Amino acid sequence: MSTPVSLEGLKKELPAKLRQVGWGLLVVGIAAIALGYVIDPRRMAFDNAIGYLFFTSVAVGSVFLIALEYIAGAVWSTPMRRVNEFLGSLVLLLPLIALPLFFHLHDLFHWTHEEALAADKVLVAKSPYLNVSFFLIRFAVMYLLWSLFYVLFTRNSTKQDTTKDPRLTTINVRLAAFFLPVFAISLTLTAVDWAMSLEPHWASTIFGVYYFAGTVLASISAATVVIIYFHENGYLPKLQRDSFYSLGALLFAFINFWAYIAFSQFLLIWYANLPDETIWFITRWKNGWEVVSILLIIVHFVVPYVALLTQDSKMDLKRLKLVAIWILIAHLLDLYWLVMPSYSEKVSLSWTDLAFPVFIVGLAIVVMAYKMKRNNVIAIGDPKLERGLSFRL
Predict the structure, then answer these.
(1) Full DSSP string of 274-313
(2) Is the overall model pTM greater than 0.85, yes or no?
(3) How far does Cα 214 stand from its chain's mean position?
(4) What pLDDT score does 384 carry?
(5) Where in the chain are the domains?
């Protein structure tokens, strides 16, 4: 039996207090970033790289989830899809996060140093790819592609709210088929450019998949937090427990997938025992980084795995929301573990590490409030919506 879709209250604003919190965090974050670049620009550049990778995970990962729903013909996620569309709009703001880095590439990347390039055969061999001009071109092309697909997906989705034209869903399915390989290649290049090339003598063919696993986990987690907040505050009141179970199951699946890829990368490098490859893990197993490595296993895998192991836990909204927030923090820790050993041989903590997380949370709230004022919270024109609202496992 289908559930009729009420058109009441589909355009709702976030509470004024939450909007104020968003603006407050945004201002504090901008001030902290500016102060960090004044006090210690090199350290801030590395924090910025972590912030960029995290922001990309949530933003581009959300566009991926939109495409995944269309290409899979999923029904259960249709009532929630507009949340991913709102979060996906962060893609358009990626240059805001990346812009300061373009003035500090020399602080981040060893391969930008001409004197290092002149004395290093490995860097010379990699210079056709690792050079500043091509680096900037890759960023621009990826940004334009991500933005183009996001705009096309959401334009058709919002247009469908008024036209109710099912052909727009078919168009988005076709767009999704083109987007998925673009997403796979561009996300891999992002991981290589902004993380792996920090240590240009090291390479891993599985590194892009590793970042993909973390990206999907982060984007699902961000959507889960927002969806549960919307449900608890009356924005998405008709969602069923079975839909939340599907969210929890998806989180649980990618928790295991991330652990599998992380272990596979370690095992393959350990087994091959090539000095150029093992040095990357050796660096992360001394001078205090071994503590972070062990903590990452516990925080990113063991805790969320146990928390979502049972069927009931995947439908417990409070637990699901806490686990989603936990995973977002774990993804930040993961990126810190990937990036910061290139900055310091010893574990280095600073107040600047919090600047970009604060900024990103504030920006996400502000963007969410902006999008909600102009769009329905539910895709009311999607032909799968009624089946999604009445979804049962």
Answers:
(1) -HHHHHHHHHTTSTTHHHHHHHHHIIIIIHHHHHT-STGG
(2) yes
(3) 7
(4) 93
(5) 16-389
